[in-house]
Sequence to fold (758 residues):
Amino acid sequence: MRQFVFYNPTQIVFGEGKTSDIGRYLKGQKCLFLYGSTSIKQNGIYDKVIDSLKNHDVTFVEKSGVKPNPVLSFVHEAIDLARKEQVDCILAVGGGSVIDTAKAVAAGFYYRGDVWDFFVDKARITKALPIYVVLTLSATASEMNSGAVITNEATKQKFNIRSEGLFPKTSILDPTNTYTVPKKQAANGSVDAIVHLLEGYFTGKYPNTPIQDGFVETLVRTVIATTKKILENPTDYDARANFMWSATLAFNGLTTAGVGDYGFPNHMMGHSLSALYNVDHGASLSIVFPAWLKHNEPTLSDRLTRFGKEVFGKTGAKEAIAAMEEYFHAIGAPVRLSEVNIDKGEIKKIAENAVSLAKKWGLKNYTEDVIAKILEFAA
Amino acid sequence: MRQFVFYNPTQIVFGEGKTSDIGRYLKGQKCLFLYGSTSIKQNGIYDKVIDSLKNHDVTFVEKSGVKPNPVLSFVHEAIDLARKEQVDCILAVGGGSVIDTAKAVAAGFYYRGDVWDFFVDKARITKALPIYVVLTLSATASEMNSGAVITNEATKQKFNIRSEGLFPKTSILDPTNTYTVPKKQAANGSVDAIVHLLEGYFTGKYPNTPIQDGFVETLVRTVIATTKKILENPTDYDARANFMWSATLAFNGLTTAGVGDYGFPNHMMGHSLSALYNVDHGASLSIVFPAWLKHNEPTLSDRLTRFGKEVFGKTGAKEAIAAMEEYFHAIGAPVRLSEVNIDKGEIKKIAENAVSLAKKWGLKNYTEDVIAKILEFAA
Fold:
């Protein structure tokens, strides 16, 4: 195993009905209450949160309107509001987009310059507001990690930040809050969790990692089995619960601790699809990941064979890739650029955009040419 | 999955050479430096720690002599010393016994009464000194949990405490620090890690827990495979590393989060063997656990069958138990009371002692009669 530092101080409060406890953790504070659309008003989560805040003497100011692939302009607005209202903390009620927005606001609150400086490594985050979460969509694991991804609309860059201060203090994971997640978003979340797990699994440089391998295979198997159940029966509690905890563990640092240097080449390429064409994050990954596997099949043959056997009960590397693609297809996730109306002629443009993130993330082998070659497999 | 709270803020710093970084985490503090025997002076760990402390301007007062099955009288002495020297924190260099002692001292430091009050639920821990760890023996996972077990020599009780403040701040896991662990202790650690994993696996009340099951099976497989390698080649880095991380993850809260009510019946009985006859903790468990499985085989048949298949590649519940016992035997761990010179005639006395812990831990079905019946399988 390679050397690593593992640190994750987020408290997870898991279970049906826990949403009504959120006020207890914020007691006596004034918070910026961030959320996305009106859906949390329709499904009752909004009322539960508000009641709990009031019951625990939490004061708050609301800001709604966070969109998928959350944008920098919204972060700026929210920072202004947080400062004007002098809040003590941020409460994010939503999925990855809302939590990531909360993290960017938390980091920007104390910083005199433009918060985007953190994303382009012009400045380091030294202080952040405390963040609390009520999760309503399982996918990104932002509820239990220290990272956030924001899109700068002006520069068409979808970039990330990471800092110890951005771990949420407490995240409430109430599986019933995900009962009303639409099938398309459930599928996106499933893809996201799987690709989070498999970026480390397939790019980790250290060979002897039985713990991490077993954990990843367990979680991928669980995500696949539970996604199918969720799409059939959206109120299957056990399926929602097992999916929720799997998605959180998929990207909280556990499965990559010790695997040595690893990269996020699929996220790198996927982010460009989102930045340029506003493709859903999950959909961007279901398109890119099978293409990446096909491109790398010759060097990943042994690993793919093991993966295919452990996760799909298949024999052979090519069969493992086919099974992965087939699964994405079966849950309604796109696996070709054409399925999200991106013409093959755009590949050069996508590669040009992606290469800037490849540089930022130290993915040295990913030149424009290599990225274009990979994307050809998704054409 | 059942509701749960997961919280584990210990920072793990893992890898060869990390021992020399310990001073960095204690910078500017005065610590009580606790350890066991002179073995850390022989294998060079002592010098590395001292050098690192000096390099980072850490002042310290030493106290050595922690014994396996650590005792209350030593805890009392160490609390007196810590108060007299007005230390800011505790540095534990050792295995579970040293870390558990550090936790008891950390908790007792601020308490006016006898620290044993915490163990018999007469008082609650509200404040504790910060704890730092350099691990030299993998077994108990005390380096990444909030519990500690101490034996009261006067009352012959081996009891435990648990409190959020007792999570170590930082634990250094340097696999090379375990190269000189004797075979008997390596075997004890292997048994301890396995039984930690399997208490939850076999007693958890909730049926649909694919994540936890997969994690436990992965870790048990890894512990078994690496123990065999370690006994053959004590300086096999990868084996030591994978064993070390497995043992930590075996009891840091991860594998039991969500499994519902579960118990520690084997630890309950094992603690009595240690309290009454000073049997090593690992050895007490390798004797008790197969007996407990045999007693419970009728009700655990399905679970045992799955376990046998996933971990040993065996078919059948009885075959799973046999494989477990065979493994303990193969690594030199005792599986019968007679192997640690305890006569069958002692069973009544052991059961009488164990039942007080059964009561404390809410193991209602474990009357003296039941405990005696289980122990008969180990006669």
